[in-house]
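Revision sheet: structure tokens.
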Amino acid sequence: MSGADRVPPAPPARARARPVRWLPLAPATLLLLLFLAGPIGYCVYIAFTDMQLTGSSGTSFVGFANFRRAFADPGFRNAVWLTVVFTVLSSIVGQNTLGLALAALMRRASRPVRTLTGTLVIAAWVLPEIVAAFLLYAFFRREGTLNAVLRWLHLPTQNWLFGLPILAVSFANVWRGTAFSMLIYSAALAEIPQEITEAAEVDGASGLRRLWHITLPMIRRSIGTNLMLNTLQTLSVFGLIWAMTRGGPGRRSQTLPVFMYDQAFLKSLIGYGTAVALLLLLVGALFSVVYLRLMKVEV
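Predicted:
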């Protein structure tokens, strides 16, 4: 038989099966490309243009001008600082710490106390964001519930939404989002073997030492996951702040999502606002990388 008449060997069965394995994933992949990657790619394009909602007959490519404008804008730098403060107070310190404390206390509480506490905390979580915002607005306003209680206790009052707006919206976010951390930590604490805790108690370890040397190391992955998810959610909070303060007074509670909305839709600077949104996405990615490295979470 000549070389031209030789039949090439058939590919192995495993190689022939590889394309078939991807067929069930094709519709989901197509949908992701269409509804996720497509809009993200279009937003990246807009960020490098001078697109406006009104007052412009055309759109031109401006390169990195929007990003240079952001870093030179005092309003953007103020929004970055307030976003960091809001995230640290309401997510890293508030929701994370309070969620862990509630989960630990509920393990030792009686069944009625656990039921009541869990119901109240989760009820705040399942409320629509705008409803929670108006409830907290009514709580913090000058004639609101908090000042009424302070007057009844003969303590000084103040206009919380004017004097301490970033603290007010941070507390509101803690009140609304602590349930998520509590549920994650409740599941993590339930996985700790009881005999390890009992052995530490027999050895005379105090509650604080058990927490630091046993509990926290054993739920390290849950801590990292909770911090990452809470931080990403907090970075995108818009409706809560907008309904309570609209970023004011002045710019004293204008975080990056509120600043982005102000620039893109109120001032019609779509290109500039989209550039700010991409920078916010970068901030979230940096937070995620830091958490994954510090906690050494396996993904």
